[in-house]
Amino acid sequence: MTTSRRGVFGLFALAASGVAAAAAEGSRHLKFSDLKKFAGTAVLYHVDFGEPARFGQVLNNITNHYAAYNNDPKKIKIVIVTHSQGVKYFLKDLSGSPWEKETVDPAIYNRFVELTKLGLEAYLCEVTFKRLNLDPEKAKVESFISWVPSGVATVGDLQAKGYSYLKVG
Fold first, then answer.
1. Domain of 135?
2. Distance (Å, whole) CA 119 – CA 28
């Protein structure tokens, strides 16, 4: 029993060190209690895949989603919750990652950044970074990118708080 407690505490310590590194660069770390229901329509797009065309389609859908609300961020809140292969779109570069032999067209990220002007945010999964041994400092640091303890748990938490769930593909 002591060993498993040590293991659990070790994981917490590892998580804290990764979060501290990210926080040192100015990233936000969200707890589940920080995730609130938006007053208007609230939607989460679940991104756990690595196909650039599919992520491009997510961005097309989000563009159309905002347009349906006259691009008014007071009427709709959209977040992307990303884990697994989906985090690669938010890395500074792919070196040292499972995708280091791939390239991601910078235009994809630029499209995402344009949508943040309407309030779009991305939540990056800490578990994915730990599981894949990704240095948290490899993640892009922007005010519209935050860390969450677990991508899948965040998906469930946001749904429980009234966010609609959408996944492309």
1. 2-166
2. 16
For the segment 41-52, the average pLDDT, to the nearest whole number, is: 96
Q: What is the pLDDT of residues 119-130, one digit of tens each?
A: 999 999 999 999
Q: For residue 117, what is the domain's CATH number?
A: 3.40.1260.10
State how many domains the chain has.
1
Instruction: Note the pLDDT of residue 26.
Output: 61
Task: Name the residue among 126, 124, 152 with its Cα closest to residue 140.
Answer: 124
Closest among 43, 41, 44, 112 to 76, alpha carbons compared? 41
In what order do the strands lie in the sheet containing 28-29? 28-29, 145-148, 121-125, 76-82, 41-47, 164-166
